[in-house]
Amino acid sequence: MLKDGPDTSQPPITQWPALDLDGVDFDPVLAGLMREGPVTRIKLPNGSGWAWLVCRYDDVRMVTNDPRFSRKLVVEHDVTRLAPHFIPAPGAVGFEDPPDHTRLRRAVAGAFTAGGVERLRTGARAILGEIVDGMLRDGPPADLTERLLAPFPLAVVCELMGIPEADRPTVHTWTTLILSSAKGAQRSEQAKTDMLAYLGERLREGRGTGGDNVIGLLVKAVESGEVTEEEATGLALLIQIGGEAVTNNVGNMVYILLTRPDLLERLRNTPELRPSALNELLRYIPHRNAVGLSRIALEDVTIAGHRIRAGEAVYVSYLAANRDAEIFPDPDELRLDRSPNPHVSFGYGPHYCPGAVLARLESELLMDAVLDRFTELRFTVPPDELRWRPGALIRGPEGLPVTWS
User: Fold this and answer.
1) How far apart are CA 195 and CA 241, in angstroms?
2) Residue % of the chain over a pLDDT of 90
3) What's the predicted TM-score (pTM) here?
4) How far apart are CA 199 and CA 201, in angstroms?
């Protein structure tokens, strides 16, 4: 790891390159940063300057739940970052602080209650059943990502959003471009612009009709003056692209199980173990590349003996927090029955992922389908020939070529 000039009063700045890592190996740069201490400084490939990095579980939860650290101010700063493009739209909920953040989330809260998502279960099972039935009817081999892991979450989140079936392939293409810089920053920005324009059109078309899906709830919120149309489209964008993260996360889980047949057979034969196993897989997998979104300190704050000054950028690493040995004994081991397991894969505090309940539901249904519907499931190529998405903000396999009996 390359270091900038020495500074005896602060940790050195570590250059953190955009690594395209294959498989589910832990990022070696992050591992090195964790060894250096609970609070370090980093410089990512894009943006300007440097930022603090907080790795320890308790410190991560403190920062993410502390009003002295602002997401909103990040929009006004060219903070060092992983992606060459800046994903969030102006007014997006991910870059708001309370009380505006609370106001925006309240507008769509009805779609993400445990009961509301649970009501989706029947419909989601029907969608999944049709997809799996089609795969079994066509027979092996198949690309599990292309045939199952991508279309199912897309269909479910589009149902939740209220996106017509005919528009879903286009929306999926935009999402893929937004979440990856592989095609260049300009393509990513254009995809964001196109999706925002589309979502704005859907909101305008829905005026006076309402509905219980996300777009319907946002229409009601705009009409009541609770949110602006710009805020509504930005919120819809983040929900839509976040809903498809399940594809990559479950892809990583399937990769683990197909390269660890002992674990696969254990889950196949012990269904009651699956809830805790899913929780452990969520803790263990690299559910993002590097770090996510930063915050700006509103005042001087001391963390682990380091003074973070007002105006300085701070990142937290949920990946590192999930490997904190003080919280998770033997953190690098995959223990399917780990309990307790208070992982932070969906974040923490006010910005806890609003779609976490939906993501768990989709992941649970997909894992059950993989374990119960496909006998003797296995790769058709050596695992080291599999490739992971280049330039992706959420790490995941490009494809999972499989066969079954």
Assistant:
1) 10
2) 73
3) 0.91
4) 5
